[in-house]
What does this fold into?
Amino acid sequence: KSAGFLILAARTDPHAVKQEGISTFLVPDPGSNPAIELTRIETMGLGPVPTFSAHFRDLVLPPDALIGPENKGWQCVLGGL
It folds into this structure.
């Protein structure tokens, strides 16, 4: 079973350099989205925290899935670390 949501960080400005041009999105219920394939990754010491690799195929998100300002998602990524 997967999480109830996925936070996706994606490059939304292909001309930006390094961490600029990254936006973050909230993807609800990724396990039931046909555009997302989740594969469980076995990890040591993180038993209660399942880890998955995610593969996206023609994923389309609504505008309200954007977390924060467009192209400013790097700050969100750093906050999650």
Observations:
- The beta strands are 5-11, 22-28, 36-41, 51-56, 66-67.
- The chain has one domain: 5-80.
- Helices lie at 74-80.
- The chain has one helix and five strands.
